[in-house]
Amino acid sequence: MTVSKIAKRAAMEPEVVRFYTRIGLLQSVRDAHNRYKTYAEGDIVRLRFIHKAQSLGYTLKEIGQILEESSRKQSPCPTVRRIIESRIRENREKLDQLARLQQRMEQAALQWAKMPNGVPTGETVCHLIESVSDENMKFET
Known about the structure:
By secondary structure, the chain is mostly helical. It is 59% helix and 3% strand. Strands 1-2 form a two-stranded antiparallel ribbon.
């Protein structure tokens, strides 16, 4: 199966198939007659797996690791679980940080709604930002 045929069957762009081949997630074989890269029927399953894994937040590097474990006839399930549990914790932290940022922004917008625009004086840049209490500004690292 050529790049364009496998891409069509997997509902992907040919460039995606070429990219996955270039980075080693797919393996192609050169046709002896025309030198085109060809793919096996099983590569459609692999492409769909890659797409599903990406939709769950797995990186291409992580997907490569999962595929490698599978190709060695080892269960990749412990790795899959470990990665997603770690990603859930990371995402929860990011969501919490975003919620705190959203709250600070909303508080600032409410405060600023009562304030007039100002002109920089040389000692100020923008009195709106400068008016925000340092207590409300806990910087995320």
